[in-house]
UniProtKB/TrEMBL annotation:
<dbReference type="GO" id="GO:0000226">
    <property type="term" value="P:microtubule cytoskeleton organization"/>
</dbReference>
<keyword id="KW-0808">Transferase</keyword>
<keyword id="KW-0547">Nucleotide-binding</keyword>
<dbReference type="Pfam" id="PF00069">
    <property type="entry name" value="Pkinase"/>
</dbReference>
<dbReference type="InterPro" id="IPR008271">
    <property type="entry name" value="Ser/Thr_kinase_AS"/>
</dbReference>
<dbReference type="GO" id="GO:0005524">
    <property type="term" value="F:ATP binding"/>
</dbReference>
<dbReference type="InterPro" id="IPR011009">
    <property type="entry name" value="Kinase-like_dom_sf"/>
</dbReference>
<protein>
    <submittedName>
        <fullName>Protein kinase domain-containing protein</fullName>
    </submittedName>
</protein>
<feature type="domain" description="Protein kinase">
    <location>
        <begin position="1"/>
        <end position="191"/>
    </location>
</feature>
<keyword id="KW-0418">Kinase</keyword>
<keyword id="KW-0723">Serine/threonine-protein kinase</keyword>
<dbReference type="GO" id="GO:0050321">
    <property type="term" value="F:tau-protein kinase activity"/>
</dbReference>
<keyword id="KW-0067">ATP-binding</keyword>
<dbReference type="InterPro" id="IPR000719">
    <property type="entry name" value="Prot_kinase_dom"/>
</dbReference>
<dbReference type="GO" id="GO:0005737">
    <property type="term" value="C:cytoplasm"/>
</dbReference>
<dbReference type="GO" id="GO:0035556">
    <property type="term" value="P:intracellular signal transduction"/>
</dbReference>
Length: 210
């Protein structure tokens, strides 16, 4: 990866996402089964934990900004809305796509830290395993009302484990301080037995979901 600059142009050379984005994969398959979703979600949480460590908030997390490489690993991209946020820092800026944005952002409340990314990650997980959005953003007022009531409706036609439902419910808490933190996510019943793995051409057959 490098930046090439001339008198009139700046070219940023980035890694090629041979697998496209996650939304494209979800649409192709209708949804992603829980076994495969665990692998992707564990990689996503690893990336978000790293951002938290270096005090960066992404603020535009969505399936379209999660890319897949040639070995089907998740790559977090599009940092156009990201910023440094240290402990105690607050922002009022509306960032991200409405369907993925935390209710405190939608309500124009001050927000701080990584909890906005936590919410968006919960939406991503819901979309992965159902192929649907948890909230209808065509009606913003009703959407926020449902979010603030901590209501999450899972489609009855899809069989989902109680563990993944409980995890999503814990991530989509309307009170930022009550959202399940990253360390508890990786230790949750749904994800605890899924260690972080990175597929390569040499090990892809070994760790691909059966």
């Amino acid at each position: 990866l490098q930046i090439i600059e001339s008198e009139s142009t700046v070219c940023i050379v980035e890694e090629h996402a041979a697998g496209g984005d996650l939304l494209k994969k979800i649409k192709k398959q209708s949804r992603i089964n829980e076994i495969e979703a665990r692998f992707y979600f564990r990689q996503l949480i690893e990336a978000l934990m790293y951002l938290k460590k270096i005090e960066v908030v992404h603020r535009d997390l969505k399936c379209e900004n999660l890319f897949l490489d040639a070995c089907d690993n998740i790559k977090l991209g599009d940092f156009g809305f990201s910023r440094m946020m240290r402990n105690g820092d607050e922002s009022h800026t509306f960032c991200g796509s409405r369907a993925y944005v935390a209710p405190e952002v939608l309500r124009s409340r001050a927000y701080s830290g990584y909890t906005v990314d936590l919410w968006s990650a919960g939406v991503v997980l819901f979309v992965m395993i159902t192929g649907l959005m948890p909230y209808d953003d065509r009606f913003p007022r009703k959407m926020v009302e449902k979010q603030m009531q901590h209501r999450v409706t899972f489609p009855s036609r899809i069989t989902l484990s109680d563990d993944v439902k409980q995890l999503i419910f814990a991530m989509l808490h309307p009170v930022p301080s009550e959202r399940i933190p990253y360390d508890e996510i990786v230790q949750s019943a749904w994800l605890a037995l899924t260690p972080y793995q990175f597929r390569s051409s040499s090990n892809i057959e070994q760790i691909s979901p059966s």
